[in-house]
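Changelog-adjacent note: as of this version, every example in the card shows the full chain rather than a window. The one below runs 137 residues end to end.
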Amino acid sequence: MTDFPAGRSAANVSAWAIGGMTFAASMLILIGMFQLFAGLAAIVNDQFYVVARHYAFDLDVTAWGWIHLVIGALVIMTGFSLFAGRTWAAVTALVLAMVSALSNFFFIPYYPWWSIIIIALNAWVIWSLTRPGAVRT
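Full-length structure tokens:
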């Protein structure tokens, strides 16, 4: 049985919150694939991304590629673990969504619209996992 905050019951939890875990797992797999492909693009062709001049957090494009590749692989594995109902996966998903959003914030000068979309998707995953009743333990 799931414990709900004081004054809440299973009947009070919205359908959005109940489907939060499934949505978050699906989106994590999608975000992870996006990160993976962005990382591969940077590793295979380091001329693909062009950075603005005088950027404070200027890293080599290949370094960003490896960062995105590793984060993407971890996010995909966590998404599948959420589907499998692993208890540790919800907390790991929250942490990785925050790390993914932060890394894409620093990646904005390289690929602005893509990074902003990924940040928004990560924020949506965080919201869906933190709704009461979204994750059943």
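Structural remarks: The radius of gyration is 17 Å.
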